[in-house]
Amino acid sequence: MGGSTSASDDRTDVLVIGAGAAGAAVAWMLARAGIGVVCLEQGDWVDPRTFPHWRADWELHRHTDWSAEPNVRRLPPDYPINDAGSPITPLMYNAVGGSTIHWSAHFPRFRPSDFRVRSLDGVADDWPIDYATLEPFFDLNDRMMGVAGITGDPAYPPKAPRQTPPIPLDTLGATMARGFDRLGWHWWPSDSAILTRDYDGRRACINCGPCDLGCPTGAKASTDITYWPKALAAGARLLTRARVREITMGADGHADGAVYHDGEGRLSEQKARAVVMAANGIGTPRLLLNSRSARFPDGLANRSGLVGRNLMFHPYAMVRGVFDRPLGGHRGPIGCSLISQEFYETDLSRGFVRGYSFQVARGLSPIASALGGFIGDRVPWGREHRRAYDERFDRTITVAVIAEDLPEPHNRVDLDPALTDGHGIPAPRVFYTLSENSRRMLDHGIARAVAALEAAGAREVSANPLLRAGGWHLMGTARMGRDPATSVIDAEGRCHDVPNLYVVDGSTMVTCAGVNPTSTIQAVALYIADGMIRRRS
Amino acid sequence: MTQETVAASRDLLALVLDTLVPASDGFPGAGAVALDHVLAMAAASADLERLLSHGLRAVRAASGANDAAGPASLSVDDRENVLRRVEQSHPEFFEALVRHTYDGYYSHPTVIARLGLDASPPHPRGHQVETVDLADLARVSARGPIYRPA
């Protein structure tokens, strides 16, 4: 490490690295308990007045400065990712709030069986914690984020009342619900971290649509407006534009802080009694692998060799139906309409183990319609363009098949030997292959989604068998477990090798379920923070 | 040989865009509403500038014309045929051209309004959505739990 380092002599109790979904939750919970917290975040606060929603050309920004792909966006807080070895591109946002700035806020929980995969189905591993243990933290997190939904879903154990009524289905959702009804399949209005009524000082959704470009209303729960104001009020300190270079170690074998580049590029150091990694399923292993020392020559907390391994995405297949009538798909939160978990639990007669969900989102905006949306079949050019476009625009429903990916050690994040970020820090490199089980699951899901769309009245159906720009969920790269030989962190979130180093983001996940993970990531983070508080007292 | 810039090929580019998305049914042609966007994107990226100027040269060559207005003398059928040949021979150029054309076209207020949408920014306008009766959920609930206890 070159250059001089200015050391801060105010050692904090806990240093949190990353201010996104998990880091914000942990910072709030610890600060509320009177624990000193400093958080280092490589991005900055995002001003809602800069969101594209205020501009008539808002949709263009999806392809440039508001792309979900850091390799496209290339903003100063972003770091490059070599994803040439993966058919799925990792997506993320680097700012206070992390990827909750651009997420669609679809907010299902993992189900009880998701924590007992080995016991129930003989594959992967059980989690060392279960649904019942996490349930109070799910509920706490729901209250902090604010969830729109309706109780009574038979796909889940009973839940506490949702904070606001569900997101309206509108014409599009109701059309798809009728399709599921005709087949006798499960569906339910999605739990969504988007308010349909004013709640906790935040305004209700105005159904403007593009949640993936931020939420200027503040109805969508991003942690910059949910957890962080409360964490800061409780005494947490948040340093933005602070990119961590490495975790530092004391002579006693404990983590004692981090070295980071501040907003002007200067190297600084923050000392701490404990360190919490919350940099997401790629950023956390990247930083651990970059924190080599004589004690940990293969990367910090990596005696198992599993840091970065067992990377799980949720492989997505996308199935689009074209209907004969307008569906109003541009109205309402883009990612949230309804969910079906008809094929969620294992049934080996289907040819695969575990299962998947259907996520029914909204329709496509004007440019996305022309470019083919998630299917990618752009509308033909030439004299047939007008007719072809008009047959498609506002007349499509896309059903996402979100498959449970099983952990496999060869799917991994490591360090690229040449690629670096703007500070010269080695960048991550991703290797991923889709398993045969996941492929069969996606194929089953495509066939069933076609049936559901046709039952809903679609006259033409197309599918994308594997969405490339679908790496929203980054999981498993510092997995939780009881055995130090087969896991990186223990059941309390502590690294087996470094007892005061914690991991709380999607890296912790032993398995990834068949639903969006943020609700569960945050519940696990709160559970880990609760353990830190209990042990301190 | 000095390569002509995209901006200097403005008339040719407008003609190409009008062939990609012709005016019809009250919609403008892309040459009228997407040209400025494509030019702006080319001006902002040296890579795109090179790609488009090289591709436009191929269009001119494929049309068998040497002067700037050459392809304008072709029939619509012939212009489409020229572009289809270039689409085959220069796929990277063509993909970028179509993508930026659609971007510019379907973000233009005139086109948005013609689609029947409000062309003003989505915020703070928002949308009214239909309230749907959720009575059918009773059927779904009636199945009882479908999750495995663990």
Task: Compose a concise summary of this entry.
The complex is a heterodimer of chains A (537) and B (150). Chain A is α/β, with parallel strands linked by helices and 537 residues long.
Can you put this structure into words, describing what you see?
The complex is a heterodimer of chains A (537) and B (150). Chain A has 537 residues and is of the alpha/beta class. Helix content of chain A is 23%, strand content 18%. Chain A contains 11 helices and 16 strands. In chain A, strands 1, 2, 5, 6, 7, 8 and 16 form a 7-stranded mixed β-sheet that branches. With 150 residues, chain B is mainly α. Chain B has helices at residues 10-20, 30-33, 35-44, 46-62, 76-89, 91-105, 109-114, 122-125, 137-142. In chain B, helix 3 crosses helix 6 (91-105), helix 4 (46-62) packs across helix 5 and helix 5 (76-89) crosses helix 6 (91-105). Chains A and B meet through helix 5, strand 4, helix 8 and helix 9 of A and helix 5, helix 6, helix 7, helix 8 and helix 9 of B.
Would you spell out the secondary-structure blueprint of this structure?
The complex is a heterodimer of chains A (537) and B (150).
Chain A: E1 5-17, H1 21-32, E2 37-40, H2 70-73, E3 82-85, H3 117-121, H4 131-145, H5 170-183, E4 188-189, H6 227-233, E5 237-239, E6 243-249, E7 255-261, E8 267-277, H7 280-290, E9 316-322, E10 338-340, E11 356-360, H8 366-371, H9 385-392, E12 396-403, E13 412-420, E14 426-431, H10 436-456, E15 460-464, E16 501-503, H11 518-536
Parallel strand pairs in A: 1-2, 1-8, 2-5, 3-14, 8-16
Antiparallel strand pairs in A: 4-10, 6-7, 7-8, 9-12, 9-15, 10-11, 11-12, 13-14
Helix pairs in contact in A: 1-6, 1-11, 4-11, 5-10
Chain B: H1 10-20, H2 30-33, H3 35-44, H4 46-62, H5 76-89, H6 91-105, H7 109-114, H8 122-125, H9 137-142
Helix pairs in contact in B: 3-4, 3-6, 4-5, 4-6, 5-6
